Amino acid sequence: MAASGLRLGHGPNFPLVDFPESGWLTREEMIEVDRIMMEDLGISLRKMMEHAGRHLATVVRLKRNELGVRPQVRSSVVVLVGAGGNGGGGLVAARRLHSWGIPVEIVMAREPEEHQGVVAEQLAIAQTLGISVSTDVPTSPEIIVDALVGYSLKGPLAGRIAELADWANASSAPVISLDLPTGLDATSGGVDPHAIKATATITLALPKIGLAPHRRSGPVGDLYLADISVPWPTPSEEKRTSGQTLGSFFWAEKNGEKLVNPFQNDDLVQIW
Questions:
Q1: Which of 82, 55, 9 minimizes the C-alpha distance to 230?
Q2: Residues 162-195: pLDDT tens digits?
């Protein structure tokens, strides 16, 4: 079986890869990848969240540097945080930015005390470090980070999530989304009326098929792909499973094509 190769180039800051759309995942396939990671391979949600947040912070810092320092404007990077794993990645990014000396504010979609699990842990770390945490939005953000809802979106945006998305869209600040812009369906590519219009999107592990119709247009903006430690099969593993579905590595062989690991040269790449 021939491998579906990546055409490699180099964008302004990260390797540019032309990842074949045959390998892009639906929501259900990404749920299975996460299950395999945690249950079969023992790679924890905390570990994946750390990787996601680090990559998100890296792109935010890059975009901030591109904007240039504006000392006359007292503004911060504002991280919009939802209740799920996407919000946890946003909290990690806020911590990273804070440690790099970048002013950052966290705006929660729910009251802080309502969060549980890993998200509550990440929130507690941010609060211990003295990062501003509120449910109120500031007046003049420098950059907005959208970590509200990722691939788990089902149904229309409503309530506080819709309000924060509308606020982000009304702002003149660039918006950087984690995994998908809030309000974009991971499988169908459908766009909610309140969907965030991102300047850039950092999608995680593998691109989601719902992003494909929005190449360089609509709500996605520049599209980056980040490695969050989802493994790819080694040559010996490929040989053992030749001609078969690659078991736990099903994402490496889709629609009759064996896909090439996009992270051979860097753990953060750009698709467009």
A1: 55
A2: 999 999 999 999 999 999 999 999 999 999 999 9
Domains of the chain: 44-232 (3.40.50.10260)
Would you state the structure tokens that stand for residue 249, as one six-digit string? 């590595």
Say what the pTM is: 0.89
